[in-house]
Give the backbone structure.
Amino acid sequence: MKRFLCGLVFLLGFVVGYAQQNQIFIQAKITENNPNVKVSQEIDFSNSTDRPLNQIKLLNWIAAYQSRNTALLGRKLEDRKSDLYFAKPHELGSLENLEIRIGDQLFDKSHSSEQNIFLPLEKSLQPGEVLKITLNYTLRIPSAKFTDYGIEGNRFYLKYFFIVPDHPENTGNREFLDIDENESPGNNWTVILDVPANWNVKSNLKELQPNYFQGILNNDPEFMISEKRFDQIYASVDGKVTLIDFGYSLTSEEKQHLEFYLPLQLSFIKNKIGSLPDKVFITEKFKKDQNFTGLEDLKFWKLRYPLFPQRIRTDLNYFSAISKNIIQQSVIFDKNEDHWLINGLKTYLEIQYLDRYYRDEKLLGALPENLKLFGLKPLKIFHASELKLSERYGLAYQYIMNQNLDQRIAEPFYQLSNFNGSAISHFEMGSLFSFLAEKMGNEKFDDFITDYLKQNAHNKVDQKDFLDRLTLATGYSSEFLEQFLQRKNRVNFDLKKFKKIGDEFQVKISKNTDQQIPFKLETISKEGEKSEFWFDTDHSRKAIIYNIPQANAEKIVVNSEYIFPENNFRDNYLYTKGIYANAKKVKLKLFKDIPNPEFNEIYLNPRLSFNAYDNILLGLNFRNTSLFEQKFNYTFTPYFSSGTGTMTGSGGISYSFQPAESFYRSLDFGITGSYFHYDFDLSYRKLTLFGNLSFSKNPRSDIGRSLGISYNFFDRDLNPKKMDQDEYSRYNLWSVGYAYSDRRMIHEKYFSGNFLFMEDFQRISAEAFYRWEFQQNKKISFRLFGGLFLNNHTRNNLFDYGISKVSNFAFSYGLLGQSATSGIFSQQLIIADGGFKSYFGQTANQWITAVNVDGHLWKMFNLYADAGLYKNHHFNPKFIWDSGVKLKVVPDFLEVYFPVQSSLGFEPSFKDYGTRIRFTLTVNFSALTNYFRRGWF
């Protein structure tokens, strides 16, 4: 009877005008404690093109879960998630017992492992014609731990698992990537689910009867099936009731807040885009993916500091999710190509919502007020505590752009790094929409969006048509967008100077682009009163004078509060009075901070360091580098050496060239100098000139390449003993090196080559490193090193290759005791040159080869082994080896080596065994930062 009713629904739908939509009927049986779902399916496939079709393509995306050769697995590894790679066979998904029939044409089952199933037709399908496809198959649902879609206990979350037709225009292969992509949008669905008694089903389709769903979707159907009964809330806006269905249980506090906020949110969205759907279905995965980033409590050890009260977190998190859901329902988007339009509109709504209800809310919430230390509020000294929550959009873009790791807005979404997925697709585009809305008037912009979505309901969005219509609606102010989306943004407005002429300011402003981009000019009085003036621009890059009223202004600002995603905001501020008129104020600040573009900031950071000869070093660092990278950098750190009672220190200046589109990401030049002690009462002075070329990289990739050259001058104090040993006092070193790194999960690789030379020697060396994760969180690594002196006329062993201890002649390693031969500092290990852990007391002045192996043993313990050959002049080559146990206190940063057996013998039996234990210590905060940001960019 149900099948008959479904057929009737199909027929009626066909009659009333859905002939160009695919009709999909699915009957699926779910059983308890069983991952297998039996499916009977019919597809009435319509040729919506203007040409005959000789084949039909079906998408079988559950096949993405069944092997290690899928795009889904590759993406998960890029995201630093290895669950799918190490999945057990019973956790994977698959399609079984597939039967496909088109009329009398029966297709075999060999396609069940392919994500794209191509069905050749015996007779061409003409434009407008409809073809019935009958399918029977069994889905083996994968574990939900890979993508959140799948089975978890007795809970099924079904999405992207059923076989669906692809649009005829998509002739190539399409693979599932778990980026919330549209698989087969715009279809008319009828789905009947046979589930165990007392189980509950939630879906984004309309439920006509229990477990009977029907409707047209601009996206893909999803079903949450569980023993639990989940929450729902009805909200009424202007007499229309919208059902908000949740695929999970709400807490009592969460539900109480939502019953208050949901009507406000829906009313706000309706006023902005014109209409609301009958139903909004929110799953736990969707909410997590769309959460309003930056509201989470700050956790440190056992301490917890809330930034925002729960009511604000609930309001903004759900507004973010619901607004995205409603926009996705409005028209048909290709989420891979049209992502900037979906996410930009969603972020525009967020910005407007913040402006309406949270205009004065700070970026750090109540944390600066609530975090106290000895009765003081330390965070209040930071500019970050003064920033508004709404400024987060411009700041996120500035952060990634200053590293030249941003991407084009129009880049396909699957090619965006995870960070750019937010900073570019959401924040930059949303800021542009908000910028244009403020220029043309928010009501006019909202009317345009309302009309566009209404006219294109159930249609595929056309990007060019949208931009053309927006250009007309804005009076051509948005005409720049079409080109702007296709290139990395480096637009900059430069507020050069002003003159007072009568009652007006004559303000001189230039821009670095030919595009006709408008801007906002603002005057701000000492009392905070603002006056705004909008100007359009022409194609010229020359400085142009704009006249505005004086209005007792204290400062003039271009595009304040990051309203337009500029390349540089530091030239957007000028003061009008006092000694800083036509200039920027200088500001001294303690500790790194988010930069305040209104000032030339100098950061003063107390420094504490240590080495065996200077002992405790107390210093003060002066630098211009904030939490955001910039092109010109300087840093100077004078130290007081408690061990010598003298002043020491270091400093440097560098400049980075970062072209937006080039074969290299950055080209850095600089000069550095340092003065410290390398032995008791012996100091060294080092001067370095360097250039470093970092090649361009795919921001989603962990592969990096760099080329460097440097010149180093060293001047060392010598005592009589060192003079007798004919030590070098002054020497010059040239170095040319290349490095390649691939930090991908499972197979991590690194290679470097170096040519080092001076008057007395020339040597080349190469190092290769490979680390394999053979089981989840269990790794084995191999390091190979080779070094050769092309010629060597040195006076001693200072420049020799190290075997178990490096010679730090360039003072480039972080050794606590540069010249230590006994004591704890002499036991510090640097994995360089030979990399042996046992102390052999030798160096190599002709050549050396070595291999270092390190593998997981148990929990924090590894086994290691080293072997190699080295040769000194006038001696035969010598083979050595060692082995032992490594304790990983902090992996890759603090590790302790316990030698066991080596070519020296059984080392634990040696009386001085305690002195043979070695440790590595890497105090490099940049390395720590890079380690934790893997998978983001």
